[in-house]
Amino acid sequence: MPSSGHRLRDVEHHPLLTGDDSYDSAASSPAEADTADRVWFIRDGCGMTCAVLTWLLVLYADFVVTFVMLLPSKDFWYSVVNGVVFNCLAVLALSSHLRTMLTDPGAVPKGNATKEYMESLQLKPGEVIYKCPKCCCVKPERAHHCSICKRCIRKMDHHCPWVNNCVGEKNQRFFVLFTMYIALASVHALVLCGLQFIACVRGQWTECSDFSPPVTVILLIFLCLEGLLFFTFTAVMFGTQIHSICNDETEIERLKSEKPTWERRLRWEGMKSVFGGPPSLLWMNPFVGFRFRRLQMRPRKGAPEFSV
Fold first, then answer.
1. Catalytically annotated residues
2. Nearest CA to 162 among 100, 88, 104?
3. CA–CA separation, 10 vs 217, rounded Å?
4. pLDDT at 247
5. Is residue 154 a contact partner of residue 23, using CB atoms and an 8 Å limit?
6. What strands lie across the sheet with 137-138, from one edge to the other?
7. What one-character DSSP code corresponds to residue 107?
8. pLDDT tens digits for range 117-165
9. Which residues are CB-neighbours of 151 under 8 A, at least 6 positions away?
10. What's the mean per-residue pLDDT of the chain?
11. Between 48 and 35, where is the model more confident?
C-alpha cells in the first residue's frame, strides 16, 4: 500500500524513521490513543510465574528479616532502624517491579502501516520506510519486534521474564530502579544474616530467635542463598543497564553490532533522557508519574496483552 512518493519495505531490522516521526497521536486511531489511559500487562505464562515467584521471594526475605532476626532482638533501636531500612527497600523494589511490569515499554501501534498514516508522516519523495511483517506497523528507528509481547518496542533492550515485560524506552528507568533496590536489599539481608549467625553462636540459639534452632538455621541459610543469587543477578543487570544508558546502546544493538545511525546521548545526557531531567532524588522514586487508572477489562483478540 505504498504511495507514489515513497516506498514501503517489509523488513524486520534497520528502520530509518526517527522516533518523533514514527508516531503521531493526532493521526492515530481513537483506540490507540485510549491505550495510554490503560495499564499494560502481558499474558505470558512463564513471565507471570516468574513475576509471582519474584514477589514471593522478596516477601520471604522480609518475613525472615522481620520475624526471625529483628523482632526477637533485645536491641530495640537495632530492630527499628534495620526493620525500617529493609522494609523501605523491599517496598521500593516491589513498586519498581510493578511499574516495570505494568508500564507500556514503548510499543508501536499495531497495523498503522496504512496509506493514510504514511501520508500523515510527510515523507520526502523516494524515502524508504520500513514495516514489520509480524505486527504490520511502520517501524521507527531502533525499534525491534518482541516475539513474546508480539509488538515492536521502541529502544527495546531485552525481554525480561522476571518482570513479565520488555525493557524499552518508557520503562527502562523502573527496571534500573528494580535491580538497584533488589541488590541493596540483598546486601542488607546478607549483612543481617551474618550478624545473626554471630549472635547465635556467641549466645544461646534458643534465645536468639523465637523459632527452634534447626528451623532458624534452615531459614537463614535459604535467605543467604537467595541474597547471593539475587545480588549477583541484579548487580550485573544494574551495571549493564547503566553502561547501555551511558553509551546510548541497547543490549540488542550491542549483540547485533548495529552501527548507530542516530545521534548518541552519552553519559549524563543518556541518564537524563532515561530518568528525566537533571540529577535529583526524583531519579530514585518509582512513584514519579504514577496515577490511578479506571478498571477496563479489554482483552484484544489475537494479542497477548490486555489493559486495565
1. 160
2. 100
3. 59
4. 86
5. no
6. 6-10, 127-132, 137-138
7. B
8. 776 777 676 666 777 888 878 788 888 899 898 889 998 999 999 999 9
9. 107, 108, 110, 135, 145, 305
10. 80
11. 48
